[in-house]
Every structure is written in structure tokens, then in C-alpha cells.
Design a protein that fits this description.
Layout lengths: L1 H22 L1 H5 L1 E3 L14 H12 L3 E5 L2 E5 L2 E2 L4 E5 L3 E5 L22 E6 L2 E6 L3 E3 L10 E2 L2 E2 L4 E6 L2 E6 L2 E3 L6 E4 L2 E6 L2 E4 L8 E4 L2 E6 L2 E4 L4 E4 L6 E7 L2 E4 L4 E3 L6 E13 L6 E5 L4 E15 L3 E5 L27 E14 L9 E4 L6 E13 L30 E21 L6 E8 L1
Parallel strand pairs: 1-2, 2-5, 3-6, 4-7, 5-8, 6-9, 7-12, 8-13, 9-14, 12-15, 13-16, 14-17, 15-18, 16-19, 17-20, 18-21, 19-22, 20-23, 22-25, 23-25, 24-26, 25-27, 26-28, 27-29, 28-30, 29-31, 30-32, 31-32, 32-33
Antiparallel strand pairs: 10-11
Keywords: Glycosidase, Hydrolase
Family: Belongs to the glycosyl hydrolase 28 family.
Organism: Neotamlana sedimentorum
Length: 456
């Protein structure tokens, strides 16, 4: 009788153990499916509190928050340390079309106060990942988030903003249709973005990756179709953006493919861009800008194919001198005065193995431009093994043009107007080397191939 009772107890314990394993398998794997916390695939339901609950639970011991196949609408969610947000194939995390669903408590964007809100936010977090074959779609078109409401700038949330975070991975995910910048990383370290797709052209200021005062950054194998700057190192504080590698990326952009600046208070150091394809850029392919008193040095760009681009290379040392101590909207197409910080420096730049076809109906958007300001020279620039085809068409009158200095103006090449050269305009610079640089025009051009002013 006792043996039978013991046998029954043993079976019951085994059964309970199996049930525990079956019921608790997600916890053992540290996976937290948002559906288990109340989220519903329904575009009429806002799931912010359910997704946040899954994140908060996951953050207790670390793990993976699962966004399953379906359409899940949310407002601002806050990622935390040791949390991986994983979007399975067919998963769509959709930004709410209502501004009231976006938090006002996160650190905003000092360079664009209208972009203070965002969909996915993290602050002071370590070991954060966004992964998977799914999509984060901000649904940020101008109907949902207009650029202006009357005479006031409309609020337009970013898709992602991380502030003061470390060990960040973006792997395989698709980021789509932000209302403003797509991904803004501020004062972060150890960032990997690999095989990410960015497709964002539904509103203005649709930047791809904005890397602001960050260290140790790898952007690799990404495909970016952006309405504004595709990959844009920034520096809105005294902290440098440094030790950054961009490679094997395919980029199209309504503005620039790769741009350092314009915010450049601390500056940029030790940045490498290689083996990329830049196509259909409308306001410059490569732009290296230092206008706010910082440094820009040790930049290497190589093995780039440019098709149907405007302004293939623009290097500008200016004197805007912005401190970024208060939120400030950009001032674009007009002359301004310096805001106080002294001019910075640009030196040690090498750009090599470039093949470019420049296509533009706007003459101001053609040609290489390398320009410092009086008394402040761009130094030590090497252009090597470069082949560029330009449209041509300049006249003898164009050759007489005097290019304004515009020291403090927003640094956009075409703001300087038409250049007196069809190939390269170099001013206030020393130690500029051209090695095996072949430039040609497809139609006759009566301007000089290269114009150099105040060069040593």
C-alpha cells in the first residue's frame, strides 16, 4: 500500500515538473511575447502599455521581447538594459498617428526641438538590441504629422532615439517612414548596425542614421533610402563622434549620402567609409563640414561608386560657431552672423578610388568644393585615383564669378551659387594633393577645370 502511494506521489511530481516546464518555457528562454501581456494586432488599438509591460518584465533579468507577426500600434516605448526588441518576419510595429501617444518626458533633440518626441526611446541603458526581419513603421507622413500647423512648426516624432547608452545592436530590421529623423544616437558607445534597411521619404528631415557624439560605431551592409542625410555623424556637445566605420552600404538620398555635420561643436575623428554605392543623391554625395569650432580630422573615404549624384565632394570649414547650449532650429537659406565659438580645424583627409557620374540641371550643385575661411585653412587633403564625369555647359561669364565667403551661413554647397570652375574649386587651403584625378565634361564648358585661391 505504501509503495503504491509513493508511486502515485512520484508520478504527480513528474507531472507537475512537466507542466511547470511547459508553462514556464518562455521564462526559461527569457522570451516575452507582447501578446501574452495584452497586445492585439489591430490598427485601431494602441498597445503602448502592453508592450511596455513586456519590456519592464524582460528587463528584470534580461531577455528578448517578441513582436510577433501582425500589426501592432504603439506610442513611445522605453527600452531598458539587457533587453532585445525582436521583430519576427511579418511583424509591424506601427507608430500611433496621435501625438498624445508620444511621451514628453524623454530628452529631446537640441538641434531640432520639433523632433523631441520619438517612438522607441532608451536612456542610460546598456546591452540594448533591435533585431529581426520585421518592420518599425513610424507612419510619419505629412498627413499624420504636418511640417507646419499655421505658422508654427508641427511636432514630428523621430523613430528611434537612444541617449547615453552602451553596447547597442541594430540587426536585420527594417526602419520605415519616420516623421523626422529615423535613428538618432546621442553620446552612445559601441554601436553596431548590420544589414538594416531604412526606407524613409514620407516627410521632411527624413535622415537615416544620425550619430551624435558617439564612439566605436560600425554601420555595415545597410541599405538606406532617405529623404534627407543618409548617414550623418553629428556633434552637438563637446563630445566627439569618433572611431566610426561605414562599409558595404547602398545609399540613395534626396540630400547627401554621407555627411559630417552640420552640428560640429566637438567634432569628428578617425572615421572610415569604404566599399559603398551612392546613387541619386540630390544635395551632395560626400560632405565634410566643420562650422561650430570643433575638429574634423583623420577621415578616410575609399572605394565608392557614385551614380547620378550632385556635388560629389564638399569640404567646408566655416565660422557659424554654434554652442548648442539651448534648443535651436536650423537657419538655412540666408546669411547669418557667427554665434560665438571660434573657428575649428579640418585636416588629414584622404578620399580615394572614387568613380562618379554627376548629373544636375542646377549648375550650383556640380563640382568639388574645398573651402576654408580667411586665416583658417583646410589642411592635408589627398584626392587620389578619382574619376568624375560632369555635365558641363558653363560659359565664359560663369568663369568670372566671385564666390562669396559666407563664413557663418549654413554650409550647403549650392548656397555659394555657381562656381567659376567645372571641376574643383579650392580656397583657403594648404597641402591639397591631387593624384591621378581624372575629371571630364560630357558637353563643352568654358570655365577652368580647377580654380585655386589662397592655397599653400
Amino acid at each position: 500500500m505504501m509503495m503504491k502511494r509513493n508511486r502515485i506521489l512520484t508520478i504527480n511530481f513528474v507531472t507537475l515538473a512537466i507542466l511547470f516546464l511547459l508553462c514556464g518555457c518562455n521564462n526559461i528562454k527569457n522570451e516575452f511575447n507582447i501578446v501574452d501581456y495584452g497586445a492585439v494586432s489591430d490598427t485601431t488599438i494602441v498597445n503602448t502599455k502592453f508592450i511596455q509591460k513586456a519590456i519592464d518584465e524582460c528587463a528584470k533579468n534580461g531577455g528578448k521581447v517578441i513582436i510577433p507577426k501582425g500589426n501592432f500600434v504603439t506610442g513611445t516605448i522605453n527600452l531598458k538594459s539587457n533587453v532585445e526588441l525582436h521583430l519576427t518576419k511579418g511583424a509591424n510595429l506601427l507608430g500611433s498617428s496621435s501625438l498624445s501617444d508620444y511621451s514628453t518626458s524623454n530628452i529631446g533633440a537640441i538641434e531640432g526641438p520639433a523632433f523631441n518626441k520619438c517612438l522607441v526611446y532608451a536612456q542610460n541603458a546598456n546591452n540594448v538590441k533591435i533585431t529581426g526581419k520585421g518592420t518599425i513603421n513610424g507612419r510619419g507622413d505629412k498627413k499624420n504629422f504636418p511640417v507646419k500647423i499655421g505658422n508654427t512648426l508641427g511636432e514630428r516624432p523621430m523613430l528611434i532615439r537612444f541617449v547615453n547608452c552602451k553596447n547597442i545592436d541594430f540587426l536585420d530590421v527594417t526602419l520605415k517612414n519616420s516623421a523626422s529623423w529615423c535613428t538618432h544616437l546621442v553620446d552612445c558607445d559601441n554601436i553596431v548596425a548590420r544589414n538594416v534597411v531604412i526606407d524613409s521619404r514620407v516627410n521632411t528631415n527624413n535622415d537615416g542614421f544620425d550619430i551624435d557624439g558617439c564612439k566605436n560605431v560600425l554601420i555595415e551592409g545597410c541599405t538606406i533610402n532617405s529623404g534627407d542625410d543618409a548617414i550623418c555623424p553629428k556633434s552637438t556637445t563637446s563630445r566627439l563622434t569618433e572611431n566610426m566605420v561605414v562599409k558595404n552600404c547602398r545609399i540613395t538620398s534626396h540630400t547627401s549620402a554621407f555627411k559630417c555635420g552640420t552640428s560640429s561643436r566637438g567634432g569628428f575623428k578617425n572615421i572610415t567609409v569604404s566599399d559603398c554605392d551612392f546613387s541619386d543623391t540630390r544635395m551632395g554625395a560626400i560632405k565634410l563640414l566643420q562650422v561650430d569650432g570643433g575638429i574634423l580630422e583623420d577621415i578616410t573615404i575609399s572605394n565608392i561608386v557614385m551614380n547620378n549624384v550632385e556635388g560629389p565632394i564638399f569640404i567646408r570649414l566655416g565660422n557659424r560657431g554654434r554652442k548648442y547650449d539651448v534648443p535651436t532650429e536650423q537657419v538655412y537659406n540666408k546669411k547669418v552672423e557667427s554665434e560665438g565659438l571660434p573657428p575649428g580645424t579640418i585636416k588629414n583627409i584622404k578620399i580615394s578610388n572614387i568613380k562618379a557620374t554627376v548629373v544636375s540641371d542646377i549648375p550650383e550643385r556640380c563640382g568639388i568644393m574645398i573651402s576654408g575661411i580667411p586665416g583658417h585653412y583646410i589642411e592635408n587633403v589627398v584626392l587620389e585615383d578619382i574619376e568624375i564625369s560632369y555635365p558641363g555647359g558653363g560659359t565664359k561669364e560663369d568663369a568670372k564669378i566671385i564666390v562669396p565667403e559666407d563664413e557663418a551661413r549654413y554650409p550647403e554647397q549650392f548656397f555659394f551659387g555657381k562656381l567659376p570652375t567645372w571641376g574643383a574649386y579650392i580656397r583657403h587651403a594648404r597641402n591639397i594633393e591631387f593624384k591621378n584625378v581624372n575629371m571630364s565634361t560630357r558637353t563643352p564648358d568654358e570655365r577652368e577645370k580647377i580654380v585655386m585661391i589662397d592655397t599653400l
